[in-house]
UniProtKB/TrEMBL annotation:
This is CoA carboxyltransferase N-terminal domain-containing protein. GO terms for molecular function: acetyl-CoA carboxylase activity. InterPro entries: ACCA, AcCoA_carboxyl_beta, ClpP/crotonase-like_dom_sf, COA_CT_C, COA_CT_N. Pfam families: Carboxyl_trans (PF01039). Gene3D superfamilies: 2-enoyl-CoA Hydratase, Chain A, domain 1, Biotin dependent carboxylase carboxyltransferase. Residues 1-301 form the CoA carboxyltransferase N-terminal domain. Coiled coil: none annotated.
């Protein structure tokens, strides 16, 4: 991102974006050369469905830059890259690994303030206030209004003499991205993600912790692939909640937003064990989706895998419960003979499998044509409600849900799946 007519090294702010003075520029550079904690790529993927290549826009946090936090500059890069994807009607993938909206520190004040301890020989007893000397006051207040202060008399711990110092009452700071302006940028990209979901294919791959606005972006983008370990989706950390409750209730962030929570409540669509598996799942998902919104469906050649003109051999036995997935994907019978299902062999991929199990949703191919699938579960399933660690009287509850019934969660799952298929331009079966 740079100013229009300027160079990549020119400084810019969120106000420049609102004034319409910024533009997104493509460039070639080495890894780690970015000066903003958000990076975007225009990628060309040469896949089986598109051997000549298909374009996607990939946006990612740089967790090595200020812990991956969202400042206003990061928000602008995200916003412009997402708008670019919408203009091209190309899929937009977001790789999430962040620490939420940035809480900055005023570095000039940080280097200047001093602590008035109650007992200088015993700092562990606490302090009375923070202050700056007269020289620092002149530099911080009269020149740039970094702080608000009030003069007080204080005994210098070194000389033992009383002198006038300036007690800090408020820290304002002059550097950008210190406080609530970051939340303004967060609102900007939340609205952009919501619009992008309606206009193009959006997906989030959670490869590390994603906090606050990062968690909101996950949900607003809907389709989510989460790494199994060290990738919680949370609004705040477990330490803050423990402090709020006054006792050690939670021990890890996974108790708040790990796959055991998010996959079972319908936020996470797929769970994968490692980084490579997450990317593999994302590419498989993309294989069902047109290269641009409203484009032709990616039809694949079935030769060597299945046949278009064939019988559906799988047939449930009367009075015997069966897995409805076998109707879709086929299965081996008791003798090891393959019984073909409705869709092409090995083409069915279930999503949201951990949530609302009386309905099964996913994607498959029929004669090479990708389709969205919704089928009811005919067997009784178990819905597990985990115990809340914050409630000492709570225990894990196992609820029996009969098949063929739309419960509130399975009805919502059906509606969400159909809406996802709509924005993927998939026929619905």
């Amino acid at each position: 991102v740079q100013k229009k007519g300027g160079s990549i090294n020119d400084a810019w702010t969120l106000d420049d974006y609102f004034n319409g003075d910024l533009e997104l520029v493509q460039m070639q550079r080495g890894a780690g050369a970015n000066n903003v904690g958000m990076v975007a790529w225009l990628m060309v993927l040469k896949t089986v469905e598109y051997p000549n290549g298909r374009q996607i826009v990939l946006i990612a946090n740089d967790i090595t830059f200020k812990a991956g936090s969202f400042g206003t500059r990061e928000d602008v890069v995200f916003k412009l890259a997402s708008e670019y994807a919408r203009e091209k009607r190309a899929p937009r993938l977001y790789v999430a690994a962040n620490s939420g909206a940035r809480i900055g520190t005023a570095e000039k004040v940080k280097k200047a303030f001093k602590v008035a301890f109650k007992d200088p020989s015993k700092p562990e007893n606490g302090f009375k206030f923070l202050y700056v000397t007269k020289d620092d006051y002149v530099r911080l207040v009269q020149s740039s209004k970094e702080i608000l202060t009030e003069p007080v008399q204080f005994e210098n711990p070194i000389t033992g003499k009383m002198e006038e110092v300036y007690k800090i009452t408020d820290v304002i700071g002059s550097e950008p991205d210190l406080g609530v302006e970051n939340l303004k940028g967060s609102g900007l990209i939340a609205g952009e993600t919501s619009s992008a979901y309606e206009d193009i294919f959006t997906m989030t791959i959670v490869l590390g912790r994603t906090v606050g606005i990062g968690a909101y972006l996950v949900r607003l983008g809907q389709r989510t692939i989460q790494k199994k370990t060290s990738s919680p989706i949370i609004l705040t950390g477990y330490q803050a909640l423990n402090k709020l409750m006054g006792c050690e209730v939670y021990s890890t962030n996974d108790q708040l937003g790990g796959p055991g929570i998010m996959y079972n409540n319908g936020v996470t669509h797929l769970v994968a064990p490692d980084h490579l598996s997450c990317i593999t799942e994302a590419l498989q998902w993309l294989s069902y989706v047109p290269s641009i919104r409203g484009g032709l469906l990616p039809i694949v050649d079935l030769r060597g895998v299945d046949e278009i003109e064939r019988s559906v051999n799988y047939s449930p036995q009367p009075g015997v419960s069966y897995d409805p997935r076998h109707l879709l994907a086929g299965a081996h019978d008791g003798k090891g003979v393959w019984q073909a299902g409705f869709f092409d062999k090995n083409s069915f991929k279930e999503t949201l499998g951990g949530w609302a199990k009386t309905v099964i949703v996913g994607r498959a191919r029929l004669g090479g044509i990708p389709m969205g699938v919704v089928v009811t579960e005919n067997r009784t399933v178990e819905a597990i409600k985990p115990a809340d660690p914050a409630d000492v009287k709570a225990s894990e509850a196992v609820i029996q849900e009969p098949g063929g019934v739309w419960f509130p969660n399975s009805a919502y799952k059906t509606a969400q799946a159909i809406n996802d298929f709509r924005t993927e331009d998939l026929p619905l079966m």
